Amino acid sequence: MPIVSSKTAPATGFDRHNHRRCIQHGVRFATHACEQAGLQLTPARQRVLEILLSEHRAIGAYDILDRLREDGFNSQPPVAYRALDFLVQYGFAHKIERLNAFVACSMPEIQHAPAFLICRVCSVVAETHPELNRGALGKTARDAGFVMEQCVVEVEGVCPNCR
Ligand SMILES: [Zn+2]
Ligand SMILES: [Zn+2]
Ligand SMILES: [Zn+2]
User: Fold this and answer.
1) Which residues contact 44 (CB under 8 A, 6 or more apart)?
2) pLDDT (tens digit per residue) in 54-80
3) In angstroms, what is the span from residue 160 Cα to ligand 1's centroid?
4) Which site in 56, 124, 139, 155 is 20 to 30 Å from 96, CA atoms measured?
5) In this structure, which ligand is nearest to the CA of 11?
């Protein structure tokens, strides 16, 4: 049985597909969302988003910096860090703490607490939203009188392609 069925989660990281559509969709959404919110999707921010969208792998800031450099962008680390901060702050990307790396959000149109399934072999990351506050963890928290505010789930394992 696959861990992630297409019914419960957009397992975009695990099925092979053409990423051009991921990039188009993600950039179009971010452009529109930034316009609506009066935010600036600068060329560097957009390029970093495209880099993240072109793979569903967690990518470290230094790799992103290398890619920016190849594209002729200003090669100072703050350029990459500021762009990543922006993308994470507004929900276009997430930081995977465990890997100290970043992935593009696969569902920026909806508010969600993401959970990540991380393949330890190929480092592909699939994002899912488990609604943990409704599941067993939520029940345990409620029973303990605990109010959950933030919940970051990073699960490491082996993806269907590497099994
Ligand atoms: Zn893709
Ligand atoms: Zn997300
Ligand atoms: Zn894998």
Assistant:
1) 68, 73, 74, 79, 80, 82, 83
2) 988 899 999 999 999 999 887 788 889
3) 16
4) 139
5) 1
